[in-house]
Amino acid sequence: FNIKGDDLIVFLHIQKTGGTTFGRHLVRNIQLEQPCECRAGQKKCTCHRPGKRETWLFSRFSTGWSCGLHADWTELTNCVPSVVDNKKEVRLRPSR
Asked: Is 25 a catalytic residue?
């Protein structure tokens, strides 16, 4: 995983498998060069790349329910590229 590059972790939450606990772990406990910022009382954390205002994590705890409530693999596959691309300037979009 290259936090400084274009790599993106997309968390697919499978219900009743400990996904909520694991999703919280991703934003609160992973030791990276620039870990997520989680503020007390807020449901979402900010997970930006070092020196950039773009996220490295796509999950309900970082981007909210951007692809709908409990999106499955097909929904995420169709939704994530458009959500991520809409947040970047057109000239900075990586090829997928």
From this structure: no
User: Of the listed 13, 25, 48, 70, which one is catalytic?
Assistant: 70
Could you give the CA distance from residue 95 to residue 82 in angstroms, rounded to a whole number?
12
Q: What is the pLDDT of residue 85?
A: 81
Domain locations in the chain as residue ranges: 9-92
Whether the model clears a pTM of 0.90, i.e. scores above it, the answer is: no
Q: What is the residue-wise DSSP string for 41-86?
A: T-S--B-BPTTSSSBSEESTTTT-STT-TT--HHHHHHHHHHHHHH
Question: 43-96 pLDDT, tens per residue?
Answer: 899 999 999 999 999 999 999 999 998 899 999 999 999 898 886 554 455 554
